[in-house]
């Protein structure tokens, strides 16, 4: 009976920290959506909201890691439970960094608006990539909640689409700057925005890899797709 009681307490603690992770993910998603809105509408107010959420995200990262350290110290978990806690910690870090990228976008939007060149730049061309990145992070969080390895594999494949969009946008932006050198400064800001969007996709990919690590115990970082698909069978 005491073992069952301890096990129930441990499960409660795992569920609590997992719930906090999902809450953190919700805040980061909000940051990303606000950043995309700020870019599409050239809204300083939306950009400021992204920066305000950043403080909450940062504090939650610290709190979740503290809780994980406490659980590991008291419970000394092994096997899958330990992998889960390690993966939650790493996922927390990836979410916080995705939030940092959203904050970078917000700051760049404010810089572009201040430059007076906002309406002259092809910001609408970033919409596909930004929507892909935001959607990929949502899928990664959903897959993490279900520990769905098949969904994780799909996310890893989809990340390539964001990379392709980024490469295409960079080529277009270089042409744009060559045609009108007056837009170089603001265009460089937009280049940093595009890179931040690509990095959000990378963080979603990292979360997907962690799902496979939890379930299968396999580290699939820097592994070919064919080998990853074999690992999840």
User: How much of the residues is beta strand, in percent?
Assistant: under 5%
CATH architecture: Up-down Bundle
Class by alpha and beta content: mainly alpha
Oligomer: single chain
Count, helices:
7
CATH topology-level name: Methane Monooxygenase Hydroxylase, Chain G, domain 1
Mean pLDDT: 91
Largest sheet: none
What series of H and E elements makes up the topology? HHHHHHH
Q: Can you count the beta strands?
A: 0
Can you tell me the CATH class?
A: Mainly Alpha
What is the gyration radius calculated from CA atoms?
A: 20 Å
Classify the helix fraction into a percent range: over 70%
Model regions low in confidence, pLDDT < 50 over at least 5 residues: none
Total number of distinct structural domains = 1
What is the terminal separation in angstroms? 37 Å
Structural shape? globular
CATH superfamily: Phosphate transport system protein phou homolog 2, domain 2
Give a verbal description of the structure.
The protein has 233 residues and is mainly alpha-helical. It has a single domain (2-231), classed as Phosphate transport system protein phou homolog 2, domain 2 (Methane Monooxygenase Hydroxylase, Chain G, domain 1, Up-down Bundle). 86% of the residues lie in helices and 0% in strands. It is built from seven helices and no strands. It starts with a helix and ends with a helix.
């Amino acid at each position: 009976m005491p073992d069952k009681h301890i096990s129930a307490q441990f499960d409660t603690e795992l569920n609590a920290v997992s719930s906090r992770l999902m809450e953190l993910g919700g805040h980061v998603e909000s940051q990303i959506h606000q950043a995309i809105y700020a870019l599409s509408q050239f809204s300083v107010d939306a950009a400021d909201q992204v920066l305000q959420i950043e403080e909450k995200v940062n504090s939650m990262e610290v709190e979740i890691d503290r809780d994980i350290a406490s659980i590991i110290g008291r419970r000394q978990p092994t096997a899958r439970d330990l992998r889960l806690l390690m993966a939650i910690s790493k996922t927390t870090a990836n979410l916080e960094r995705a939030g940092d990228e959203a904050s970078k976008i917000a700051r760049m939007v404010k810089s572009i608006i201040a430059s007076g060149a906002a309406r002259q730049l092809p910001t609408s061309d970033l919409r596909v990539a930004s929507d892909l990145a935001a959607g990929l992070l949502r899928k990664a969080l959903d897959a993490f909640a279900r520990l769905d390895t098949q969904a994780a594999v799909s996310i890893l494949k989809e990340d390539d689409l964001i990379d392709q969009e980024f490469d295409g946008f960079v080529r277009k932006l270089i042409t744009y700057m060559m045609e009108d050198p007056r837009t170089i400064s603001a265009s460089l800001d937009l280049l940093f925005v595009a890179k931040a969007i690509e990095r959000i996709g990378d963080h979603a990919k990292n979360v997907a890899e962690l799902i496979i690590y939890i379930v299968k115990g396999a580290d699939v970082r820097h592994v070919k797709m064919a080998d990853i698909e074999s690992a999840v069978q």
